Amino acid sequence: MTAKKLRVLAVGAHPDDLEFQVGGTLAKYAERGHTVVMAVVTNGNVGSSTLPSDEIAAIRFQEATTAAAMIGAELLWLDYDDEFFFYNEESRRRLIDVMRQAEPDVVLAHWTDDYHPDHSLSGQAVRDARIMTAVPNIVTAHPPLKTIPKLFFYDTLAGINFQPEVYVDISGTFATKQAMLAAHVSQSAWIEDIFEGSSIGGMMETQSRFRGFQAGYRYAEGFRALQTWPRAADFGLLPLD
Q: Which domains does the chain have, with CATH numbers?
């Protein structure tokens, strides 16, 4: 991995997406002294079978804050309604500004063909906003970036429709990933309710073990580089070693 200290922006659609899919990688970046910013697009305000939307949204914000603090990451909260993130001019401008605010060298985003529209559309919005972050005539609250950040896509839920090009060994940070995900206490009951007794921690561990099995590690997270120009093919920007 490059010796340069990087600024890393990870964008997740919901509170707990980043912990589930890239928590080990983000912890590894943080351990090595890189700056990590975690941006959460929606507020999780429908993620409960029992609590009203404003109450569960407040709980999920606190859970996300707790998880980010475990690795010293900055949390950016975009506060769109859960299940109703739409890709339009307003959300594109918002993602441009968030990326400018984070000033990243590396951006991690959802794959654009995931099971959930909030995942797929936020990934598409990040992908499309990337070059625009450096365009001065697109005016937002934060100044344009001087260089276009590199973009990598992370895994889908259960790895469906996603073939990693590269794997990050998270065996040494898996315990931190578990702790970050466990901070999202409200989601344990919610996942069990909506997905018929599934465990969010168990789902995450199964996927991390499976990707690790593919890569020859105990636990791993998978990534793909952006395929379009200018393509981010420098996998050395990821904490591979």
A: 7-237 (3.40.50.10320)
